[in-house]
Input
Amino acid sequence: MSEFALFGIRHHGPGSARSVLKALTKLQPDLVLVEGPPDAQELLPLAADPDMKPPVALLIYDPAEPRRAVYYPFAEFSPEWQAIQYGFGHQAPVRFIDLPQTMRLALEIEAEAMAKPAGPMDEATADTESAESPQSRDEGNAGENENSAALDIRCDPLRWVAEITGYGDSERWWEHLVEQRQDSGELFQAIQELMSALRAEADAQSPSSPLEQQREAAMRIQLRAARKEGFERVAVICGAWHVPALADLPPAHADNARLKGLAKRKLAATWVPWTYGRLTYAGGYGAGIEAPGFYHHLWENAGEPTIPWLARVAQLLRARDLAVSTASVIEAARLADALAALRNRPRPTQEELNEATLAVLCHGDATPLRLIEAQLLIGERLGAVPDSTPMLPLQQDLQRQQKRLRMPPEAGQKLLELDLRKPHDLERSQLLHRLSLLSIPWGHIEQASGKGTFKEHWRLRWQPELAVAVIEANLWGNTVPTAATARACDQARNSEQLGLLTALVEQTLLAELPEAIGEIMERLQNVAALTSDVPHLMDSLPPLARILRYGNVRQTDAGLVGHVVDGLITRITIGLPAACSSLDDEAAEAMFGRVQALNAVIGLLQNPEQTETWRSALIKLADQAGLHGLLAGYACRLLFEQQVLPSLEIARRMGLALSPVGEPVQAAAWLEGFLRGSGQLLLHHEALWGLLERWVEGLSGEAFLLLLPLLRRTFARFPAPERRQMGERIKRAGSSARISMATEADVEVARADRVLPVLARILGVA
Output
């Protein structure tokens, strides 16, 4: 008769992992059964590969819909991972025994078809520390009043026990009584008895969910199969909540009937690197833990973790230029030990270490604790998988390029500065742009030194879910360049918006995809020819202008863009006066931004013919009757800056626009358009300053109060130094006027003349 040893564990616990290893060493099993997806059974031997570095995860996905995917994460301190390593290290077969994801995914699709509210599948090990996954709990929500107690047990079965024994939550209870336990001889028997009592209480009030029953039926079927095959000592490592359901095997026909007829879906599986950040609750992981980095430390320092941990904290703080002495580290260790003794704990836990760190090393300032949490308690560790891991062609090509360009994926953020004049950096930039086209946001471009220059700044951070994005992108091609080319062409064919097409042209050229640019440009020309909306034409021009101006700097062929830009500028300048007529304030503000961008484009291209065409359009705008004051003032300002109209003509136009007989609101809008972003022009042009001063002095009290908010808004846009210079100039002008007036009123010329001869003799002047 086979002997089944049931080891109920919490996912990702160093104490549970250590206890499992001790129990397996004592049992010497000839078969190891682990709660996990049988869909990935063929991939299990890779776990013993020396190049497999946790944290890693099994990724199971639907090849037809890669977004339908689940992860099974493993850390080095995960009990399941240590059980797998023990099995392969002692030549004992290892099997996964959970309900196959082929069935679970089919059940999810059926639920969606029945219009039930169900979100995407979370990580498959989303069992709470020893409870069922959130998906399996949805079925119990119907009878909230009568079943709330049972649901509460199933959601967090250890919370009741924790509260009874004086702990604030089940996480702390499990950590103190299980993870820190030194003697694990009777641990798993005690867990089985505890879970049996909790499940009996829950089952007495309501049955478990159908999914939970199906999962446990699948596990029992695997146990019966192991017995039938003649294995004598079988170790079963599963979530503690499932242990009572596996302790006694009911007749097989009931379990077989429960799984009979379930739909299946064809899936694929692989190993992918994982991160400690994705093992936390904050990462959205149902079976997450608070501090995977701290748990890793506990796994590596089983004997005395306090001093090594505080030494790491001190090293981190010193690296950030925070003073931490050796004496302070010793004092913090003593404080942590004292706190643990006061709380009747065998050794300091994360709670005591944090309190000691805050009091001694951080001097009561909680700010450094956030750094410690990010760098040490959670950590930025990223796992690795061996080259022999099954991968799609695109995954393999991306991995080769990452190695060739020396761009290894990293969990933490990394700022990468690229000099596009260097071939190596240029290839890196092209790879990142191609991945962006494929919706693989490994890098985010942040800034450049100027507009379109040879510098690029990227912020890189590899996230585990990008593995799914790479799998999805494999549908477009087997290599990064071919996939990006196919994706760009498909986006062009399905886009009707000119702005999106011009942005796509820019991105395609930066990604160096010559096979795609011809088709995209043809599509761009066709859409541009059919587009009569001048604002859309204006929005589409800046990306093309950057390509045309800086194509040679980035070693891209920008010649195809030139005639498109010429045509767009001609059509915009012809249609601009009509597009600017009859605009309200909001529409005029939007058009102001477009005209400003268009003027920057003309200046960027430095084409004499285009510049002359643009100036003609500006003159038409300035002369257009009924034009919104914001645009009219800005047109006059541009004509003044480009020396198209002389100063006297600009002064004349300004005087007419700001005439007291005109509409005050329109005058204020004209002034805002003329002055926006040009405080220096006002400071150094005496005629314009005088016109503005006289206009303000000529306003009536009622008109001034009406225009004051508009004037304040205009001048508030100026930089602070310019506003200060304006204020000082007004102050000086006011003081000079007062002195001049006082002199003219108080001095008597006849009496002063009588003083002059005497003063001349005193001074010795003839």
